[in-house]
Specification:
The complex is a heterodimer of chains A (114) and B (114).
Chain A: E1 5-7, E2 10-13, E3 19-24, E4 31-37, E5 43-50, E6 65-69, E7 75-79, E8 88-95, E9 103-105, E10 109-113
Parallel strand pairs in A: 2-10
Antiparallel strand pairs in A: 1-3, 3-7, 4-5, 4-8, 6-7, 8-9, 8-10
Chain B: E1 4-5, E2 10-14, E3 19-21, E4 24-25, E5 31-38, E6 44-50, E7 56-58, E8 64-68, E9 73-78, E10 87-95, E11 102-104, E12 108-113
Parallel strand pairs in B: 2-12
Antiparallel strand pairs in B: 1-4, 3-9, 5-6, 5-10, 7-8, 8-9, 10-11, 10-12
The chains are: A mainly beta (114), B mainly beta (114).
Chain lengths: 114, 114
């Protein structure tokens, strides 16, 4: 597609429930990133996928967070047993392997845990 | 740990006045530097980036930034702002050797007033 697509755009969930967030990267982009943006704060790195290499999970805040990506396609970020502090906008970005570091961000999923 | 500092959380300015948004990063051998803008309820849009070459970088919408290695800074400037420049501005850095992850500052809210 023309851009990075994220779904849903908004999600309200009850505390303790699991949620899945989806990211469709730009076709051909080998790298995919997930970030979290809490209200009034900057973006926190969560996880990074590069082709078939092992993902860099160093930013995941707890074992309730996990993400998958099959090849160079769709990625899903899963949050288990959601807590109120998980409320944030979750942003996905993809990047091609060209040396221009052209990251493209999606519009994000706004997650609200009530 | 590598970090990015945006000291000003909010910058109010009158229309047609000049503006500078400050960004400093942790000292490192080699970095790539970025400024992104986020309009309300939208994704991040790249304003400009420094990868190599001239330390003065020109971006979209009349913005420019200057890479100063000795001061580890990458301040964003515009000589004359417009109401439409009201947005959140994020400075971001890639510390080379760190997996091509963007490390973001906490953002600066630019509010342009008549």
């Amino acid at each position: 597609g023309a851009g990075v697509s994220q779904s849903p755009s908004n999600k309200v969930t009850e505390k303790g429930k699991d949620v899945e967030l989806r990211c469709d990267p730009i076709s051909g982009h080998t790298a995919l990133y997930w970030y979290r943006q809490r209200l009034g704060q900057g973006l926190e790195f969560l996880i990074y996928f590069q082709g078939n290499s092992a993902p860099d999970k160093s930013g995941l805040p707890s074992d309730r967070f996990s993400a998958e990506r099959t090849g160079e396609s769709v990625s899903t970020l899963t949050i288990q047993r959601t807590q109120q502090e998980d409320s944030a906008v979750y942003l996905c970005a993809s990047r091609s392997n060209e040396g221009n570091y052209g990251y493209t961000f999606g519009s994000g999923t706004r997650l609200t845990v009530v | 740990a590598q970090s990015v500092t945006q000291l000003d959380s909010q910058v109010p300015v009158f229309e047609e006045a000049p503006v500078e948004l400050r960004c400093n990063y942790s000292s490192s051998v080699s970095v790539y530097l970025f400024w992104y803008v986020q309009y309300p309820n939208q994704g991040l849009q790249l304003l400009l980036k420094y990868l190599s070459g001239s330390t003065l970088v020109k971006g979209i919408n009349g913005f420019e930034a200057e890479f100063n290695k000795s001061q580890t800074s990458f301040h964003l400037r515009k000589p004359s702002v417009h109401i439409s420049d009201t947005a959140e501005y994020f400075c971001a850095v890639i510390y080379t050797g760190g997996g091509n992850k963007l490390t973001f500052g906490t953002g600066t809210q630019l509010k342009v007033e008549l």
